[in-house]
Design brief:
Layout lengths: L4 H24 L11 H7 L7 E3 L6 H6 L4 H8 L32 H15 L6 E6 L6 H12 L4 E7 L2 E2 L2 E2 H4 L16 E5 L3 H16 L5 E6 L17 H8 L3 H11 L5 H23 L23
Parallel strand pairs: 1-2, 2-3, 3-7, 6-7
Antiparallel strand pairs: 4-5
Helix pairs in contact: 1-10, 1-11, 2-8, 4-11, 5-6
Bound molecules: thiamine diphosphate.
Length: about 325
């Protein structure tokens, strides 16, 4: 049974679009961070938040969150192609957006501070007495950094309206999570901060969405943060060029059988919410949209040496103009 077919169909579309966009970007850039197999976490987490809520998605799979919040696909492509029209002016993939969309940028590359920054936006929401909330996601590797512990502790102590989501894809580049911590379940860490910890199947978008929405309701009602661990798997290498030879084919194959999009599609078909033709049309439309957006972005101007913005980094040299 699918409780809310409209939401399920919408999240299916976003996951398909995320997959198609991601595969296309991997083909374009050897340094793209692939998110195949992890779509249920960003989509399930950030779908359905209010425009005045703050979204702080982890970098892997985050482009779809920007698109869900209103960034045009063409603009995502401008970032992927290094165009000077992109939000990062061609210097980065531009996992960022105009501030009015309330998506925190993930552009610095330093993993961890976003957890503290999101805790800061949650503090502002509480301080201003609004009932808006913040949702932040980050990887299992990032959850071992000091920023995580400091921020979640403070969020708990001040009962801030925030949902912390660990996108546990088992790997941090070539480091498996079992070697990075002795904790068996990352959600158990919540007990150390006096907040609820929830472990959820991160390849089941309906389960992720339900867990996050429950946590959002708690946060809006003034009951403070929740820590959610969504267990998923990084199906490809750390970057598109990484063949991930450090792990077994058997592990990858096992997770292949739990593909989040295929699983949702099977449920939608079984429940009669979507027909096979409609499901196929979703894939075809996504391919067309992604292709058209790419073609449009390719016509954008390239970055020039004069666009490097050195003037924004260095002061005028002594004796210079
Ligand atoms: C503070 C910091 N340390 C190390 C890195 C290098 N680095 C980039 S991605 C990455 C792996 C992060 O793993 P995780 O948080 O699990 O996210 P995932 O890549 O699995 O999505 C590392 C170590 C970094 N960017 N910032």
């Amino acid at each position: 049974m699918i409780e809310d077919p409209k939401t399920a169909v919408a999240m299916h579309r976003w996951m398909v679009l995320s997959r198609v966009l991601d595969e296309a970007c991997c083909q374009e850039s050897a340094h793209w961070f692939p998110s195949r197999g992890e779509e249920a976490v960003p989509v399930g987490t950030f779908y359905g938040l209010r425009p005045d809520d703050v979204c702080a998605p982890g970098y892997r799979g985050s482009p779809i969150v920007f698109v869900m919040r209103g960034v045009r696909l063409e603009q995502v492509w401008a970032g992927a192609l290094g165009k000077r029209t992109s939000f990062g002016r061609g210097r980065h993939f531009s996992f960022t957006a105009p501030i009015e969309l309330r998506v925190l940028p993930y552009i610095a590359g330093d993993l961890g501070p976003i957890i503290s920054q999101a805790t800061g936006t949650a503090f502002a929401q509480k301080y201003r007495k609004s009932d808006a909330v913040t949702a932040v996601s980050f990887g299992d590797g990032t959850s071992n950094r000091g920023d995580f512990h400091e921020a979640v502790n403070l969020g708990g102590a001040w009962r801030l309206p925030i949902v912390y989501v660990i996108q546990n894809n088992h790997w941090a580049i070539s480091m498996p999570i079992e070697r990075a911590t002795a904790a068996k379940r990352l959600a158990d860490r919540a007990a150390g901060y006096g907040i609820p910890g929830v472990a959820v199947d991160g390849n089941d978008v309906l389960a992720v969405h339900a867990a996050v929405q429950e946590a959002v309701r708690r946060a809006r009602a003034g009951h403070g943060p929740t820590l959610i661990e969504a267990e998923t798997f990084r199906m490809r290498g750390h970057i598109a060029a990484d063949t991930a030879s450090y792990r077994s084919a058997a592990q990858v194959e096992e997770w292949q059988g739990r593909d989040p999009i295929r699983r949702l599609e099977e449920r939608l078909l079984a429940a009669g919410v979507l027909s096979a033709e409609e499901a196929q049309a979703v894939w075809a439309e996504a391919a067309q949209e992604v292709g058209e957006a790419k073609a449009a972005a390719q016509r954008h101007p390239d970055i020039l040496p004069t666009d490097l913005g050195l003037d924004e980094i260095f002061s005028t040299p002594l004796g210079g103009a």
